[in-house]
């Protein structure tokens, strides 16, 4: 299901005036605090600390952040701790974290899926985006 969604996303991104990417997580994460120190900003780690379900909050944040950096064509080379996303149920990009990008030009969406957390990042068409 996810692979099909990724191919569809690439086709949309290649033929439209916007950039979109899908990210999904389907397996448990054993140590969210250690991972959060590597990929989350101070604000995100604070939100994670106060979340009623830290694992769900981490997975929400990670899938959203991954969708955004994939849409930019940066992947894990992106400054992950400078990009800020919401960890709650409502998906949002709070800080673009990348020069030349504005959070107001991007939209993060949750996509219902029976066995995974799925996020989509929609933003402006990127002429100079790196390889995907």
Q: Could you characterize what this model shows?
A:
This protein is of the alpha+beta class and 132 residues long. It has one domain (2-124): Ribosomal Protein L22, Chain A (Alpha-Beta Complex). Helix content is 37%, strand content 20%. The chain has helices at residues 2-15, 32-39, 42-49, 54-72, and strands spanning 18-25, 84-85, 93-95, 107-111, 117-124. The strands form two sheets. The protein has a three-stranded antiparallel beta sheet. A two-stranded antiparallel ribbon has the order 2-3. The longest helix has 19 residues, at 54-72. The model is unreliable at 1-18 (pLDDT under 50).
Question: What's the gist of this structure?
Answer:
The chain is α+β, with helices and mostly antiparallel strands. The protein is built from 4 helices and 5 strands, in the order αβαααββββ. The protein has helices at 2-15, 32-39, 42-49, 54-72, and strands spanning 18-25, 84-85, 93-95, 107-111, 117-124.
């Amino acid at each position: 299901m996810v692979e099909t969604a990724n191919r569809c996303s690439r086709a949309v991104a290649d033929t439209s005036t916007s950039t979109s990417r899908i990210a999904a997580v389907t397996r448990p994460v054993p140590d969210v605090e250690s991972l959060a120190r590597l990929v989350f900003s101070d604000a995100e780690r604070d939100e994670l600390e106060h979340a009623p379900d830290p694992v769900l909050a981490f997975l929400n944040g990670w899938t959203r952040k991954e969708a955004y950096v994939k849409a930019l064509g940066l992947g894990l080379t992106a400054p992950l701790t400078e990009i800020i996303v919401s960890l709650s149920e409502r998906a949002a990009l709070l800080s673009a974290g990348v020069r030349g990008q504005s959070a107001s030009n991007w939209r993060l969406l949750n996509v219902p899926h029976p066995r995974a957390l799925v996020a989509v990042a929609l933003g402006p068409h990127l002429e100079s985006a790196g390889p995907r």
